[in-house]
Amino acid sequence: MENKNFDFDVTLDVMTVGGVQYTPEDRLGCGAFGTVFKGRDSDQSTVAIKHQYIRPDNSRAQILEEYRIHKDMSEVDKAGSVIKMIGMLKNPKSVIMVLEFAPESLHSILGKVTSVQTQKYFRQLIHGVEFLHSNHVAHCDLSLKNLLLLEGNLKIADFGRAKRLMSKDQEFLSTECRGTPKFCAPEVCAREPVPVKPFSLYVWSSGVVLMQLTQNSEDSWREAKVQVQEYDKWVAKKKPTGSDFWYNIPPAVMNLLRKILEADISKRATIIEIKNSPYFKKDEKEPIKRSGAATRSSGKRARY
Ligand SMILES: Nc1ncnc2c1ncn2[C@@H]1O[C@H](COP(=O)(O)OP(=O)(O)OP(=O)(O)O)[C@@H](O)[C@H]1O
Question: Nearest to residue 231, comparing CAs of 271, 269, 200, 190?
Fold first, then answer.
């Protein structure tokens, strides 16, 4: 989300959560609503400490809902798809959550992701969204910054916009699930509120993640909206030219992306179709490096 953080200058004291003492250290990052610090528990294990002031646009009820959804998912998550929620401390002005610490995010490693890693993270992301969806949770803000990495494995973080659903197919209004604009599906970018299905949103955002990882860059349309030039070009499905950011995407990924980043929801790939796609099923191999040849990690790749 756009950074409108009010508590940029916040400092935290030593705190006790669930009987354990935590010492906050350096600031790790700032989102629109909170500031995240590195911290240590009394055993010197590293944790992340997320501080959020209660504000008119981030009420106590909203923050506590974020905590409860994240805690519930973390408790039933056997495969390790979600950053673990360790505990929470509330006071009249703020809510503080203690979380498992992840040293990197997909955003922080962009530029040096190999095709084998891209496939691994994409597979883990699809398993993660399937897990959340089957537990009736819509995350609503999947983005490279909210997908963290711990010991080389992807972990879904930031449940600040997450919603609980009565059923897997419960629809809700597009205006209730606007996350990071680049990662939002076209039905969410529409000006008028329209009913949306959570799994279609998950699929679209995962596609933008795959597109950016494959390119090793954040290049994308600003929003999936008519009259946004790059998006219009994507929808027109014309043969890409060198100026189109998807020009160098390999055919196997491109075939899948065309099915995922499909504006028509009735034609958009389902999670099952993604899992049955050749790209998902067939293991990627690192390209053999030849001296002088452009490699993926150099950021420039020959088209194949
Ligand atoms: N568990 C964690 N371990 C390490 N770093 C983290 C952790 N959680 C969050 N961060 C860092 O802090 C940043 C902000 O955290 P988070 O996204 O939870 O805050 P937010 O205010 O809800 O953000 P947003 O504006 O994206 O909604 C992240 O982008 C990430 O860099």
Answer: 190
| Pocket flag, ligand 1, residue 101 (CB < 6 Å) | yes
- Local confidence band at 10 (pLDDT 50, 70, 90 cut-offs): confident
Has 141 been annotated as catalytic? yes
Phi-psi region of 128 (alpha: psi -120 to 50; beta: other; left: phi over 0): alpha
Kindly give the number of the ligand 1 atom that is closest to the alpha carbon of 158.
18
Q: Which domains does the chain have, with CATH numbers?
A: 2-100 (3.30.200.20), 104-281 (1.10.510.10)
- The predicted model scores a pTM of 0.91
Asked whether 287 lines ligand 1 (CB < 6 A), one says no
Query: Can you give the pLDDT at residue 149?
Result: 98
What tokens were used for 30?
């700032």
Would you say the CB of residue 1 lies under 6 angstroms from ligand 1? yes
Contact 208, 261 (CB under 8 A): yes
The answer to whether residue 119 scores a pLDDT higher than 90 is yes
pLDDT at 299: 39
Let me know: does 97 contact 71? Beta carbons within 8 Å: no
DSSP 55: B
ipTM: 0.93
